[in-house]
Specification:
- Helices cover 34% and strands 36% of the residues.
- It has 151 residues and is α+β, with helices and mostly antiparallel strands.
- It has one domain (29-149): 4'-phosphopantetheinyl transferase domain (Ribosomal Protein L22, Chain A, Alpha-Beta Complex).
- The strands form 3 sheets. It has a 3-stranded antiparallel β-sheet with strand order 1-2-3, with no helix packed on it.
Length: 151
């Protein structure tokens, strides 16, 4: 049976986090979780509309979120939570060079969510493998991101 090692190290922003090591190589680079109140996103959409959409979401995300009017706020909330969770996983939060529209959520043919990076975010973090989970109810959306170093 292989030996599994656990080590504490500093992430991108200098915070201490744990990682499972495989042969001395880090596997987990970051974990982020965020939950969003769907009603807050609905109010923001009502108040700011396209201005909010254009600032935070990619054109593909906007098309997906708008295709069913009764679930629009929930879809936006889940994607907003994913972007926040990614910001936590890389250790910067939504400051320090974070670009909302360079992080997007799509879907594989199976329906499984997938994280896409572009621009500077892809340059800095595109080497990391991402795992994403999204869930929402009428009131809350949650996202979890795990970032792995490619071995």
């Amino acid at each position: 049976m292989p030996t599994i090692y656990f080590e504490v190290f500093r992430n991108f922003s200098g915070n201490y986090v744990g990682a499972v090591l495989n042969g001395g190589k880090e596997m987990i680079k970051g974990i982020g979780v965020d939950n969003v109140d769907v009603r807050r996103i609905a109010r923001t959409l009502q108040q700011y509309g396209e201005r909010f959409e254009q600032k935070i979401f990619t054109p593909e995300e906007i098309v997906y979120c708008r295709w069913s009017p009764e679930r629009t706020a929930e879809r936006y909330a889940a994607r907003f939570a994913a972007k926040e969770a990614f910001a936590k996983a890389i250790g910067t939060g939504v400051r320090l060079g974070f670009r909302w529209r360079e992080v997007s959520v799509g879907k594989e043919k199976t329906g499984r969510p997938i994280l896409y990076l572009s621009g500077g975010m892809a340059e800095r973090y595109g080497h990391l493998r991402s795992h994403i989970s999204l869930s929402h109810t009428d009131d809350m959306a949650i996202a979890m991101i795990v970032l792995e170093e490619e071995l």
